[in-house]
Design goal:
mainly alpha; 3-stranded parallel sheet; 3 strands; 53% helix
């Protein structure tokens, strides 16, 4: 893992202590990959932060990730925007690509929670290939 050049003296002590406590809490937790399934309004988004905090997992809400990718103008975000502008559904491969990128982030090292995806067996099979 590459080290970034950060002057720790510029970071408030409270923030450093909170990060240290978080890492100590999360270190013994087992790795997990969870998928929250249910219709809109069923509470997936409500439960996700609770599960995230308890199990030190990275929440991956596909809608939020797509909007962030479009805003950041990533290559996948640009492709998603083109589909959105045409009123098309975002392809499974594109969504899986965005999920795959997110799962590689350091914050997802202990595992992740998928919220809102997959919705079909075909989507689930594609996500399994990323893991």
């Amino acid at each position: 893992m590459a080290c970034s050049s950060v002057n720790l003296e510029e970071i408030p002590s409270e923030s450093l202590m909170n990060e240290l406590l978080h890492r100590m809490k999360c270190a013994p937790k087992p790795d997990k990959c969870l998928i929250l399934i249910g219709p809109p309004g069923f509470g997936k988004g409500t439960q996700s932060p609770i599960i995230k905090d308890e199990h030190c997992l990275c929440p991956l809400a596909t809608g939020d990730m797509l909007r962030a990718a479009v805003f950041a103008k990533t290559p996948l975000g640009i492709k998603a925007k083109k589909a959105m502008d045409k009123g098309e559904l975002i392809s499974d491969d594109l969504v899986v690509g965005i999920i795959d990128e997110a799962m590689k982030k350091p914050s997802c090292k202990k595992g992740f929670i998928l919220d809102g995806f997959p919705r079909t067996v075909a989507q689930a099979q594609k996500v399994i290939l990323c893991i």
